[in-house]
Amino acid sequence: MSTDKMALAAERKMDVETLHEDIDEDGVSDDETPRRVAVGKDELMKKPAGDGERVKRKAKRLVKHNSGERAPTNTMDFVVPHRRWKNSRRSRNGYGRGLPKKGGAGGKGVWGLPGSEILEEDFEDHNDPNYDSDDKNIELKEVIPDITPEEYFKRVEPIFLEYYEHGDTLEVAQSLYEETTEVLRPLVTSIAIEIAMDHKQSHREMTSVLISDLYGRVVSGRDISRGFDMVLKNLPDLILDTPEAPTILGNFIARAVADDCVPPRYVTNPEVEELNEYAIVALKRADTLLNMKKGWAHLDNVWGMGGPLRPVKIITKQMTLLLQEYLSSRDIKEAHRCLLSLEVPHFHHELVYEVSQFIFSQE
């Protein structure tokens, strides 16, 4: 009995090997369609079908599963190599068009859709320390910071010093117009006079001409009067550096009245509440110059005729007087000061000539 079973098994084995030789790589013979036949109790095997039967092949499909589901064990997962489903933000549930979830606004560490902050309504937290209930009605206004008189003096002082070099009043007017506001206009006159007190007579003449040219361009008559008021109040301090400050200020006031920059009543009725003793001297000096018999024409030369503007005869006469004073006083410092005050360095040879003439006359 056992011998018959062994022979039957060997015969079946030979049949299987024959079928394997006839079946191609796809499991189909060259001219027949496979069909299942019984090989053993629990095994099924493909057997060539008869002619006329159609070949049925099963198409391969991509299988995608949700992250929470488990794939069936009897199927094989196939993932395209160039896709990385782990870091992709596309939907994984198999529905939709494969676009990013929530338009790219979903996921951890994402603040929202780009540009969504523009469409969001502003949320104001009343508990926020920076919350201001008056922020609804805001008006922006141009604010110009105020300049202190000390800062303004530092700005315009180089302008006046350069004016003594070039003498162009129009350039000074343009520079002061850019630097001066309405509040600072009275300071123009006061600063110009205080600077001129430390310079020569010719520079003081240039300062009077400058004040006359600035009238109506940069400053008004009211501003000039207020500038004189400031200088009258500061005379106790100015006299420490310039002992003749009251006389100089009186000449400036008289010249301004003659140039129609200040009304004549200012001399007798200034707007200073309390006049100090030096201010009274300055106003008396101006009143004396204005009440002279020759009228106001002589005030054009209140500072004298500077340097080359003087006639040669006048310069020669002054040199002679200077030499005579020196011979009588023997004060070399005073003679040196008088020579510099003439402001005629090109005419110093006249002094040498006068000294030579005096020596020859004595012999």
Automatic annotation (TrEMBL):
SUPFAM superfamilies reported in the protein's UniProt record: ARM repeat
Cell location: Cytoplasm
Domain MI: 151-272, 314-363
Top-rank lineage group of the source organism: Eukaryota
UniProt cross-references to InterPro entries, sorted A to Z: ARM-type_fold, Initiation_fac_eIF4g_MI, PDCD4
Chain residue ranges for the region called Disordered: 19-74, 87-107
Gly residues: compositionally biased ranges: 95-107
Ranges of compositional bias, category Acidic residues: 22-31
Biased composition (Basic and acidic residues): 32-54
A single Gene Ontology CC term: cytosol
Nucleus found in the keyword field: yes
Record keywords, A-Z: Cytoplasm, Nucleus, Repeat
GO aspect biological process, one term: negative regulation of DNA-templated transcription
Residue spans of biased composition, Basic residues class: 55-64
Similarity-based family: Belongs to the PDCD4 family.
Name this protein carries in UniProt: MI domain-containing protein
Provenance organism: Phlebotomus papatasi (Sandfly)
